[in-house]
Design brief:
alpha+beta; 3 domains; four-stranded antiparallel β-sheet; 15 helices; 46% helix; binds zinc ion
């Protein structure tokens, strides 16, 4: 057993947890058996057996024992010598939080850490997911249609039958854009609440309410009658879960940066060259900043993602920024420093919070005005 063996085990486990969730979505009456999950689990157990003679019986035991715990804790019984010899603490999987939380009994829902970890791994894994399919449908659109659909998706996690018809009509002269738009949504099948944190749906599970991100439920919002969504007497649609996660969370950042610049009357463009950058800011002295908004809770995931993408895209900009939501750094003060370690070759690029970016924009604007 070596570190590569464990690396593979964690990819399979993460992929398997998500596969189990998909199985459950398609048939909630059957236990979701995922071969991928069992393969990963068996690899990890074999490694544990080698490292500390640990023995575990079955999947339910394994889930209860590990899946809701941070990855570092999975190795708590391991010999310190083995951990050091394999240099485990430097492995890409080691710094992640729990891959899933318990929904009820033997049913676990993958959390953002699991998705983020997987996204930094082999990109084949994302093949066929809703977010990837939408991305492929969007990237062939022209700039105008691209911006129109993307903005609509970000601003409307839930839409009515009437909203859907109206937007479809608006896009009727562009079948590819209409197709992308309609693909992004699915009909809501059960009564639920509108999540007061992100605007998506909160549905009731045995252990309370679930949204697309455990972050929403961690804040335990108070759900009022006004937030109720009754689907028995009207048709409503919501973004598919993966699309909500990948488009909407960073999208909110993008729109906020743009509205901040607009208020200051600083020239800015949303999604210039479609997917290359998220926001381009042009100051009165002609200086250009390019922004890439990222909504990864885990800084190691973001850093790995940046490394896989070979850093910030090249271009004619003075400064480049990876921007993350300010609240993501509140319990991880070294968040941006961790990410910046991937940017040592790009001196004009750094990772900042939205709050810091706003401060820097204001400072730059002031210096332009003084000249
Ligand atoms: Zn939410």
């Amino acid at each position: 057993m070596d570190a590569a063996f464990l690396r593979k085990a964690f990819v399979l486990i993460a992929k398997g947890v998500i596969e189990k969730e998909q199985l459950l979505q398609s048939d909630s009456t059957r236990y979701p058996y995922s071969k991928t999950f069992q393969h990963g689990m068996n690899m990890f157990l074999a490694a544990s057996y080698q490292a500390c003679n640990a023995q575990y019986s079955d999947e339910s035991h394994f889930l209860a024992q590990f899946i809701t715990k941070p990855i570092a804790d999975w190795f708590s019984g391991w010999d310190q010598d083995v951990i050091e010899k394999l240099n485990l603490t430097e492995e890409p999987f080691y710094g992640y939080g729990a891959f899933a939380y318990q929904r009820n009994g033997n049913v676990y829902t993958p959390g953002s850490e699991c998705y983020e970890f997987l996204e930094t791994q082999d990109s084949d894994i994302m093949e066929g997911t809703d977010e990837r399919v939408l991305y492929e449908k969007m990237i062939v659109l022209n700039q105008e249609a691209y911006c129109k659909v993307r903005r609509f998706i970000i601003e409307h996690p839930i839409i009515s039958f009437e909203d859907r018809r109206k937007m479809s009509l608006e896009l009727s002269d562009n079948p590819a854009a209409k197709d992308a738009f309609r693909f992004a949504y699915e009909e809501i099948k059960e009564d639920c609440y509108r999540c007061p944190y992100c605007g998506w749906t909160m549905t009731k599970g045995k252990y309370g309410y679930n949204c697309h991100s455990s972050h929403c439920t961690d804040t335990t919002p108070i759900l009022t009658d006004e937030m109720r969504l009754n689907v028995s007497d009207r048709v409503l649609y919501r973004l598919k879960k993966g699309i909500m996660r990948y488009f909407s969370a960073p999208g909110k950042l993008e729109l906020e940066i743009v509205s901040f610049c607009e208020k200051k009357k600083i020239q800015c463009v949303l999604w210039p060259q479609m997917d290359k950058y998220d926001v381009e800011i042009r100051f009165p002295n002609g200086e250009i900043w390019e922004i890439d908004a990222k909504a990864y809770h885990n800084p190691i995931a973001l850093r790995t993602k940046i490394q896989n993408d070979n850093g910030f895209p090249e271009g004619e900009y003075t400064r480049g920024y990876f921007v993350v939501p300010s609240e993501y750094t509140s319990n991880q003060k070294n968040y941006t420093a961790i990410v910046d370690r991937a940017l040592t070759n790009q001196k004009n690029v750094k990772c900042v919070t939205l709050k810091t970016l706003k401060t820097e924009i204001t400072r730059k604007e002031r210096s332009c005005l003084e000249k």
